[in-house]
């Protein structure tokens, strides 16, 4: 049985970055969260009504409406930055013994990006279609 040396994540790998750090996933999460906050004035009340949760307290959900443009710009900027890191920036050198794992992870990250991008596009375009539902 051979012993495989463990790599220290604080030591930069051959590509110059730190292993185990993927900022694109954090940026995608930031884009999704800021899109959800940006669309609380429109999407959340409709979803709650469709589920059967109603009440006068739902008027308070419009308190975040003045901040909608800020969260929208934040979501789009995070999505563009994540897209740059995923598609345009060269992939880091894989330091694992199984080189196929890096390709699989990168492919899964691309699928997650496209799924979240479609979700974000649907949420950000919802105010255009919201009058048809009410």
From TrEMBL:
Q: Biased composition, Polar residues: where in the chain?
A: 1-10
Membrane topology field = Multi-pass membrane protein
In terms of InterPro entries, this protein maps to: Transprt_MerT
What are the GO MF terms of this UniProt record? mercury ion transmembrane transporter activity; metal ion binding
Domain of life of the organism in this record? Answer: Bacteria
Question: Could you list the residue ranges that cross the membrane?
Answer: 27-58, 70-90, 111-133
Identify the GO cellular component terms for this protein. plasma membrane
Asked if the Swiss-Prot or TrEMBL record annotates the protein with the keyword Metal-binding, the reply is yes
UniProt keywords (A-Z) are: Cell inner membrane, Cell membrane, Membrane, Mercuric resistance, Mercury, Metal-binding, Transmembrane, Transmembrane helix, Transport
Localization, UniProt: Cell inner membrane
Q: Does the keyword Manganese apply?
A: no
Principal subcellular localization? membrane
Residues folding into a coiled coil are none
Specify where the region named Disordered lies, as residue ranges.
1-21
Function of the protein: Involved in mercury resistance. Probably transfers a mercuric ion from the periplasmic Hg(2+)-binding protein MerP to the cytoplasmic mercuric reductase MerA.
Q: Which family does it belong to?
A: Belongs to the MerT family.
The protein, known as: Mercuric transport protein MerT
Lineage, broadest ranks: Bacteria, Pseudomonadati, Pseudomonadota, Betaproteobacteria, Burkholderiales
């Amino acid at each position: 049985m051979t012993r495989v040396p463990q790599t220290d994540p604080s030591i930069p790998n051959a590509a110059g970055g730190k292993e185990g750090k993927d900022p694109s996933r954090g940026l995608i999460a930031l884009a999704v969260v800021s899109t959800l906050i940006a669309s609380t004035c429109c999407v959340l009340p409709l979803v709650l009504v469709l589920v059967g949760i109603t009440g006068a307290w739902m008027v308070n959900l419009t308190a975040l409406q003045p901040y909608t443009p800020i969260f929208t710009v934040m979501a789009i900027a995070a999505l563009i930055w994540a897209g740059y890191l995923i598609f345009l920036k060269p992939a880091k050198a894989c330091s694992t013994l199984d080189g196929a794992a890096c390709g699989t992870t990168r492919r899964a990250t691309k699928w997650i990006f496209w799924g979240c991008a479609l979700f974000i596009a649907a949420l950000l375009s919802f105010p255009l279609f919201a009058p048809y539902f009410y």
